[in-house]
Amino acid sequence: MNENAWFQCIRGCEGRYSLFDVIYNCPVCGGLLEVAHDMEALKQRTGAEWRRLFEQRVRTNEWPVGSGVWGKKEWVCPQIEDDNIVSMFEGHTNLFWAQRFGQEIGLEDLWVKLCGNSHTGSFKDLGMTVLVSVVKQMMANGSPVRAVACASTGDTSAALAAYGAAAGIQTIVFLPRNRVSAAQLIQPIANGALVLALDTDFDGCMALVKEITQDDTIYLANSMNSLRIEGQKTVGIEIVMQFDWEVPDWIIIPVGNLGNVTALGKGLLMMKELGLINKLPRLVAAQAAQANPFYLSYLTGFREYAPVRAGQTLASAIQIGNPVSYERAVKIMQQFSGIVEQATESELTDASVRADLTGMYTCPHTGVALAALIKLLGRGVIKPHERVVVISTAHGLKFTQFKLQYHEGTLPGFGPAELLRRNPPVELPADLAAVREAISNHRAL
User: Fold this and answer.
1) Residues 300, 306, 311, CA angle at the centre, nearest 5°?
2) If you compute the radius of gyration of the chain from its CA atoms, what whole number of angstroms results?
3) Model confidence pTM above 0.85
4) What is the CATH number of the domain that holds 323?
5) pLDDT by residue (tens digit) across 169-211?
6) Are 385 and 109 a contacting pair, CB within 8 Å?
7) Which of 248, 307, 393, 430 has the most neighbouring CB atoms within 10 Å?
8) Residue 444: what pLDDT?
9) How far apart are CA 251 and CA 376, in angstroms?
10) How many domains does the chain divide into?
């Protein structure tokens, strides 16, 4: 087979551009670019043959196809040389059968895709392995690129710094000062990135990094660069593989910059076109009510769109008021009869805490998706018998402070009536009688 992929304009302008060029926007109209694949070449294998090939590569030690991303190399970036791939065998994250939580909310078949069970603790690893590998190939080809930069609310910077360190490539991250968790802040610091903590929000950081990367020696790593979408699209393929190639009824994903829902849809569409599946799931994009431009646009049927000034939200990684992948995400949602829902701070917090009490350990962004599920189930949009997958985008350990403050009763803006599921430690003297009394009085026993 002679697989090939290239950049092209999402608005349909003519022109193809190499994946190894320093280019982010269409030279004709200024629109975003997307990676296109030679689908006729890929169709030389049947859907059954692709399924067998992908299954053979799962959890092998063969380089690089043991990776959940590079096991689909032909669909991701076929031209790259294996020696230039920078991988930590990302992907292959487990599906958690959320049986108890599902029963509590009235849903029979609920699963949570734990993308946070990854090297840097978020789904961003899936895209960053592709982008950093392409940069390494570009440098080997003589490109002037010498560093890679991103704006981030925490997870993108962690993934970029880790993969850059593994490749020996300098990374620069722009973070909104005092707006990311300590766990997220230390990750790029520890991996040797130049960390610029700026007195602005994510959108301000994004504006600056777009200016800085006008210099061709500094490559842009944000999701407006669709190389990352090629890696992130494998999460949908993995989900279907984990159900023995059966497509769930719904997939719910928290969204901010909108690259993730774009990627999810793209992978599923490729599966259908190439004959691996014969139907598509419904998609739900879940936003925090404090940062909800996609939701507001959805309410107009996507006829209107305006950026918002993102307010403070516990779901800090999606605290984005001007998502760069808006156009791409709209196209995906229309193809999937998608729904956009929002969650208030109270709703996302309660959903996250309830999930933890059934055995999960959720980030607040997963709380946004679970809150959207609860609302759609309550309205009868999602039916109790349908199979639902919620994508958990990051590990809860990145947001320990959020959880501590909830259970200590110190979460800013929350009163006692909103903290009814608190489970603080019981402080006692080292006295047997006191211990026995505390155990006997515990409400759960």
Assistant:
1) 110
2) 22
3) yes
4) 3.40.50.1100
5) 999 999 999 888 888 899 999 999 999 999 999 889 999 999 9
6) yes
7) 393
8) 58
9) 12
10) 1
